[in-house]
Amino acid sequence: MDRQEIIKKTELFVKKTLSEDSTGHDWWHIHRVRNLAKRIAREEGADIFLVELAALLHDIGDYKFFKGDEEAGEEKVRQWLSSLEIPSLFIDKIVGITSQISFMHTLPDKDKWKNKKNSSTPTISKELMAVTDADRLDAMGAIGIARAFTYGGFFNRPIYDPATKPSKSITKEEYKITEAPSINHFYEKLLKLKDMMYTKLGRKMAKRRHRFLNLYLKQFFKEWKGKM
Ligand code: ADP
Ligand code: NI
Q1: What pLDDT does 20 receive?
Q2: Is residue 136 within 6 Å of ligand 1 at its C-beta?
Q3: Which of 123, 91, 119, 94 lies closest to 198 in space, CA to CA?
Q4: Number of H helices, E strands in the chain
Q5: Residue 217 host element (H or E)
Q6: pLDDT tens, 40-86?
Q7: Any idea what the Cα angle at residue 166 is, between residues 165 and 171, rounded to 5°?
Q8: Ligand 1 midpoint to CA 175 (Å)
Q9: CA torsion, points 41, 25, 79, 55, in degrees to nearest 10?
Q10: Nearest C-alpha to atom 23 of ligand 1 is from which residue?
């Protein structure tokens, strides 16, 4: 199977899998991340084929699909790639990206001694950097704001509640189960992303999207207080 065919088949597989999901993961997020990741990959001299495949598959193995089971997600990506008869070295590289990309993995564990998987620092390839930056950029700016309220709305969360303060040092466990208002998510994740970018282009774009997040919050609180 040639590379073009592998990409096309994977695209159809991802579209089909995400259409059966209702947790708010959608194809257009994948579409944007794929394009942005390829752009960053070109700037960084990363392997475009690996980046494109990893970007397409990055949410297929999301723990939310498997009731919190992160290993099951990894297995799903692996199974798909094996069915395409891709060399196992490539499969390992792609799974390496899709299993490390999540923001949640960067958070501290409640009981870090229990977590064997995160105890050593894995190598960060150019390909992982491109896909991770692209995924994080899509959680920022105008699109990121729309996604945060879509997510919150789906889970019946209020947009804001002055009585529920954002958590200053949210742990992985808390992040998974939080029922906080959507505005809290800006402080618990979105505003942190600017300083987590790996690439030059990622940093440049994140700076602008970050500025927009702050502008939005400023306006939001002015309106909340009836000042504007
Ligand atoms: P990650 O895989 O990095 O944990 P998710 O898949 O959880 O990210 O996020 C999907 C989208 O929903 C992102 O735009 C994210 O910022 C948003 N989101 C995730 N959790 C929340 C939340 N508790 N409140 C509002 N938006 C959220
Ligand atoms: Ni994503």
Answers
A1: 76
A2: no
A3: 123
A4: 10, 0
A5: helix 200-224
A6: 999 999 999 999 999 999 998 775 655 566 778 889 999 999 999 89
A7: 135
A8: 9
A9: 0
A10: 185
Q: Answer yes or no: are the C-beta atoms of 122 and 39 closer than 8 Å.
A: no
Please return the burial class of 140, using the count of CB atoms within 10 Å of its CB with bins 0-12, 13-18 and 19+.
Answer: buried
Ligand 1: which residue has its CA nearest to atom 3? Answer: 103
Please identify every residue whose CB atom is under 5 Å from ligand 2, which is an ion.
59, 135
Kindly give the distance from the C-alpha atom of residue 222 to the centroid of ligand 2, in angstroms, as a whole number: 31
> Which ranges in 45-181 belong to alpha helices (H)?
48-57, 70-83, 88-100, 126-137, 141-154, 172-177
To which residue do tokens 């400023």 refer?
218
User: What's this model's pTM, rounded to 2 decimal places?
Assistant: 0.91
Strands (E), 116-155: none
Cβ–ligand 1 contact at 100 (below 6 Å):
no
169-205 as b/e: b if 16+ CB within 10 A: ebebeebeebebbbbbbbbbbbbbbbeebbbebbeeb
Q: Which positions of the chain have pLDDT values less than 50?
A: 113, 116
Cβ atoms of 23 and 154 closer than 8 Å: yes
> Under a CB-based contact definition with an 8 Å cutoff, are residues 96 and 122 in contact?
yes
Question: Which two structure tokens, joined as six digits, stand for 136?
Answer: 């994080």
User: Quick one: which of 56, 79, 40 has its CA closest to 3?
Assistant: 56
